[in-house]
Amino acid sequence: MAPRKQAAKRAAAKKPRGRPAHQPTKQSREFVEILAGMFVPIERIADVLDICRNTLLKHYEAELRRGSALVESKLISNVFKIAGGQDGTALKANMFLLNCRFGWTQYAPPPKEPSLGKKEQADQEAQVAHEGNEWGELIEQAQRLQ
């Protein structure tokens, strides 16, 4: 091989191929956190930073989680403040919190009464078995005679 070709090969071997690795900055981390807090989809955030989705998740996972958590906590805080009032808006805020947090709904059927076991049911039936038949009349006559 000619010396020029060998030198060209060595120079090409030293030059890195492909795109340089992404280096997050403080500014880009804050930017990702703000966008995540505004519920911007991950794909859009990656497009804005001109990186792929996997790179975004690799370098900015904490910012993505923290951004949405911060906005969610601020929203809940505002709903709690509104719920502390005395007007109709406070009532709606309380109903919203009950619905979201505890699964309460104004359309839910009333809770069922617990069903009785066999012995309890037989005992209740025995207490009223004499009503509405001829045995009941005989018992009433016997009680009057005593």
What is the share of helical residues? 55-70%
Helical segment count: 7
Sketch the topology as an H/E string, one letter per element.
HHHHHHH
Largest sheet composition: none
Shape verdict: elongated
Strand content: under 5%
What average pLDDT do the residues reach? 81
> How many E strands?
0
Class by SSE composition: mainly alpha
Low-confidence stretches: none
Radius of gyration: 37 Å
Structure summary:
By secondary structure, the chain is mainly α. Helices cover 68% and strands 0% of the residues.
Task: Describe it.
By secondary structure, the protein is mainly alpha-helical. Helix content is 68%, strand content 0%. The protein is built from seven helices and no strands. Helix 2 (26-37) packs across helix 4, helix 3 (42-49) crosses helix 4 (53-83) and helix 4 crosses helix 5 (88-102). The longest helix is centred in the middle third of the chain and has 31 residues, at 53-83. It is elongated. The termini are far apart. The model has no long low-confidence stretch (mean pLDDT 81).
Outline the fold blueprint.
Blueprint: H1 3-14, H2 26-37, H3 42-49, H4 53-83, H5 88-102, H6 118-127, H7 134-145
Key descriptive features of the protein:
68% helix; mainly alpha; elongated; 146 residues; 7 helices; 0% strand
